[in-house]
Known about the structure:
The structure holds three protein chains of three kinds.
Chain A: E1 11-22, E2 25-37, E3 42-46, H1 53-60, E4 68-70, E5 75-80, E6 83-86, E7 103-106, H2 110-113, H3 120-132, H4 136-149, H5 155-159, H6 168-180, E8 186-190, H7 198-215, E9 218-223, H8 226-232, E10 235-240, E11 243-249, H9 250-255, H10 260-267, E12 285-299, E13 305-319, E14 323-327, H11 334-341, E15 347-354, E16 361-364, H12 371-377, E17 378-381, H13 395-405, H14 412-425, H15 442-454, E18 460-464, H16 472-489, E19 492-497, H17 500-506, E20 509-514, E21 517-523, H18 524-529, H19 534-542, H20 549-552, H21 560-563
Helix pairs in contact in A: 3-4, 4-6, 6-7, 7-19, 13-14, 13-15, 14-15
Chain B: H1 2-12, H2 18-21, H3 25-34, H4 37-54, H5 56-59, E1 82-85, E2 88-100, H6 107-111, H7 115-124, E3 135-158, E4 167-177, H8 194-230, H9 232-247, H10 250-263, H11 268-281, H12 285-299, H13 302-309, H14 314-350, H15 362-368, H16 372-377, H17 383-406
Chain C: H1 2-8, H2 10-25, H3 30-57, H4 64-74, H5 81-91, H6 97-111, E1 116-117, E2 122-123, H7 124-128, H8 131-159, H9 174-203, H10 206-220, H11 231-234, E3 239-240, E4 243-244, H12 246-283, H13 286-293, H14 298-316, H15 318-336, H16 341-351, H17 355-383, H18 385-392
Antiparallel strand pairs in C: 1-2, 3-4
Amino acid sequence: MMSQNFSNNLLEIRDLSIDFNTDEGLVRAVDNLNLSIRPGEVMGLVGESGSGKSITAKSIMRLAPGNAIIQHPSQITLNHRDQAVNVLKLRGRDLRLVRGDAVSMIFQEPMASFAPAIRISDQIIQTMQIHLGYDKDQARRAGIELFDRVGIVDPARRFDQYVFELSGGMRQRAMIAMALSTQPKLLIADEPTTALDVTIQAQVLDLMMELREQLGMAMLFITHDLGVVSKIADNVTVMKQGKIVEAGTADQVLFQPQHSYTKRLLDALPHLENLPEAPTHKPKPLLSVKDLSISYPQAGKGRKTEHFTAVNNISLDLPEGQIIGLVGESGSGKTSLGKAMLGAAPISSGHVEYHNTKKKVKFGAGKAIKRKRLARTAQLVFQDPYSSLNPRMTVRDIIAEPLEAMKLTKSREETDARVIEVAKRCHIEVAHLRRFPHAFSGGQRQRISIARALVCNPKFIVADESVAALDVSIQAEILKLLKELKDELGLTILFISHDLSVIANLCDWVCVMKHGELVEQGTVRQIFLAPQETYTQTLIASIPLLESAENRSCGSPELLHIAERPVSSMQSEWV
Amino acid sequence: MNALLTRFGRKAKPKNDDSYYTAGQMALIKARFKRKASGVIAAWVLGTIVFMGLFAPFFSPVDPTIRGADIEYRRGAPQVVKFWDENGFSLTPFTYTYTKTRSRIDLKALAGGGLSALDALTSSGALTASSQNKYDVDRVQRRYIQFFSKGWEYSLIDLSIGNLDMDIRWDRHLLGVGQGQLHLMGTDEDGKDVLSRTLHAVWITISIAIVALVVKLIVSLFVGGVSGYFGGRVDTIMMSITEAVRVIPPIPIYLACAVALSQLDLTSVQRYFAIALVIGALDFATLGRRLRTHILTERNQDYVLAAQLCGASTWRIIWRHLIPSFSSYIIVDTLINFPYVILAETSLSFLGLGLTEPVNSLGVLLQKAQDPDIQQNMLWQFSPVAVFVVLIMAFVFVGDALRDAADPYSEKK
Amino acid sequence: MIIQFLSDTWLLWVLLSIGGLLWWSGRDSQYFNYIFHRYQLALATLLIVSAVVFSLMDVLPGDCAEKYIAYKSTQGEMITQADIQAERVRMGLDKSLPERWGRWVTNLTLRGDLGFSCAKRQSVNLALGDRFWMSFMFCIAGLVFAYLIAVPFGILSAFTINKSWTDKNPQNSKGQQLVNSAFLSLQKLLDLTLRIISYLGLALPNFLLALTIILLYVFAGEAMPTGLFSDQWSNVPWFGSHGFETGKLYDFLGHIWLPIFVIGWSATALQLQTVRALVVDESNKLYVDAARARGVDGMALWAGYPVRHSISPLFNSIGFDFMRVFNDLPIVAVVIGLTDSAALLIEALAMTNDQELAAAILFLVALVVISMNFITDAVLAVIDPRVRKSVLGN
């Protein structure tokens, strides 16, 4: 595959430059980009938000938004049926060549990319009728066969459902089936696994690799995650702010990176080989959770209210002065548990108790919360850096909120002094304190959020998916800040995340949750290198670690039992 | 237009300048609003009309009440302002002197009792409506227009509340003529000046709308706030009532209330406030529901939870977080609703159930347009219709532009 | 005896049996359970509406006894205050408001009796006759008119969103750019015109529009087509000695366009904006791009995706659209001289203070709106999977 003739490229992008027409004039989104994909090749296009990777993909399909201007002398050439087609000059019906005939696209959000009020079957049949000229019955049979092929159980029934009736993993499989329905030569996948849980991500990746091997189609795989790329790509291109910073074979880019940016991205991946040693003794607990259950009322059938149990009877001690990782997939109850420690979730039984506090802090079922005492002991850093800051308050007012709300300071000067102290500690410029949140990027906002949490000197901080919305390189800075704070202030941090690589890089102690129960806990070394429970093992095995070309096809040993099965017979435990 | 747009765009978001970053929500809305040319133009038009309405006595050449009626010039057509005519050029604009054509009625013959004389009189047209509009133009006797001319005394700013006496009185008017009166839009059947009446009517109509909208806001805030804050059973009951109010057409309800009001012995000022009160108080369903939804969603926002976890009291959360969060929404919604409230007032007055003569409101003036006599003989009395249409259009454009500006998603990514 | 009882209470049995049927069907069907729930809700809303309407109409001056006695006094009888009081007691007007309301609602639910109009001295049902149906048809015709214009033009207007006036794509040749620019400008111009018209719909309310049209007729020196028929045809039966009177039909059509156009005017303007906003909203969603990426284009794309998905919310608002149209009807009826129930309503409110008649008309309007909402909810839950999901769960 590697030895194919270079001039025989399936897709060739030459000097692609794209500008966005904005209120401030033209803003360059893609600058002089060169890229080529051979038939059957998988090209990984890596970059963070704003790097121009998505707009590049959309330009290939001629789906760039109205305010995007593709400048001269950009060229996108598609070699199709021994003809070189200039994609940018296509008009009218000819556009179908890149929109389905030769190229297909998978979007990040499968839920949003199917029309909600039209059956999936009708959408797929319509596509096949357009491109393959099938009649309705033919298209239907072919569609169900495709559904079977991408591992959807009971394909005939699922085929006629609406998109919201499918689960997350199944939706992405249906999306893949949709993309394959036109038998394209090139598949563009724009962050196809980012919105999925790790275990499902691993399955979808395996499916895509297998399909690619069977069908021999080329793929442009867009992602921000180098781990994912290492599993699937032959060649890798790294983009930053519209420019290519590094390109080459996967092994070159991932194992001998030249550019500092690539190195920084690689650093963010988990390094299981040098995980910290466990401390010799386990420190005293700062906080104990005893037999804690959390349930939310939910509309049941008719007039009845049912209760949905998010956390079921968990007991847990959090060691003081450590960063504790709480891992679980969506719906595992990890956020509920974290919020319960701050008294922000309905505790139906059990209690939470803080130790070594000046005044006793203990609350739970039937025991009211002393809100102010708790607020001075424990604080929260939110997941979404946008909705957690009131857009109508200045940064100074936001950070000062706890001091002013609880009247902890005697004068405005004292408040200001404390705010400035904390802001400096979190690396926020003092001059920025009079700005409003809209002036800041996600990473800076998260610093403000952290500063607010720290301003009343708490002992304990819950960080709920606090870096999930950030780019990898920004994530690293926030993680570094959290580590600093732990070391310098002796903070205890509960770090809730679905992202195992972040946990591995940051935490000392890890708890794993599934379906509201605590599955396993231990030091980071124990959990990542010697997991005891099956669920933890699957989870760890699903982490997209860097893999070189040789190991790639067989996947990690734990996943062998999945990968070795033919795709069509995959069973339903995850779909 | 494009150049204008870019200029506003630049101005709104300067680079390397801290002012954009330290601008609060209102300042941002203002900046975004300025980028929309149609909104800016409409805002100027609206501002001019409202300003002229607010200081109507100054801008009106004639007292719009019966005191200022020009008995010599009833049913008079608009007077044309000229700079020159066959008698020469003048730097100051002027109009002519108009005198009533007195058709000679042969009173003696009439007194003689001859039926034929009466017949002749009727058929001569001297008594028909259109002949009453006829005036002789004395082209020699010019009336020069004076600026800041002296006229009837009025109170420019009246802030007398209780013992505080702050009534600034003035007698100057923007336009006037030395002798007689100036009627740029003609006069009505009593000789009242249509332009002056329209200017006064604008402010009365707008002030009714303001009162109505304030009342509406208070009622809606109460309904939405109680419903959204308490939730549960209170919410269900409140919402079923608003749902019921929503399905009944409002104008007949206003009518019923107006009829009931007409039974009470109210002065025209009391009536004026009563009508505003009725319109405002019954129009809570839509805004009340929206506020409820807004409170329900905003209450679950992360920053409210953050404030709770910071130990903020309920009052502090309501005062510092919730109320500011929908203040801009309320302002926009109020502005968008202005035309509808004005329409409600005009509809009522149009049917003769809101304000009535001799009060000046746009509805009262519009109502006259129904009169066949006016339709056939006094078209100039339709000019308030044009003012009304322009006013409403200006409100709609400003409201639309402001809504786009207040919506954070309207900004291009 | 029993027959008599049943026929006296027929409406109650109808309502109960519909409810029972829905309840029965709802035992094992989630859909009918939802419909049953909506049915209960609709009845409850109607009850509140009746209370609101009834108590509001009570503020109108005068009552039935006074009017009846006043009528008698015109017949030459001597009337004292005691007579009025006695008449009040006889009519049950001395009872408290809730009691009277209770009686009204009971009569209404038992046999659809809307009460007794004192000003007209006949039962409301009789006084209304088919005049309510006339108003209903006016409103529906106005709505149909509004939809027929607003939907296609609103969609057309939505096409232009996010498009610029000129084509500046450097990939196109100069000639192409020129042709495209001309085409784009034309579209944008159309959009601008439509938007200004829709703003005018608000700024030039129905009654002013009617006045303007009247004025035009005055200028042209022609007779206004007010009412439904001209004098010549008003007393001619539809089926005369020569069979069907086509002349009457032409005359009718010559008159009917005015009320429909005037009533439909504001509704059209409002719908234009609504349709435009809905379609724009849908066309910005990812699934439209995804469909485009699959090669769906042209009409199949627009009609099949954004337009198809914005029909439901539009359909859902028919009830309130009807209410809005009826809201304008009375004032229009006054201006162009209609004789339908809206004109009756104005007469009852402003001239005769006929509480029962006014309450009945308002109640009927609310009944129509609530029924329409009920029906649209029921239909949407069947045809739109998004609604089905949100109201029924999966």
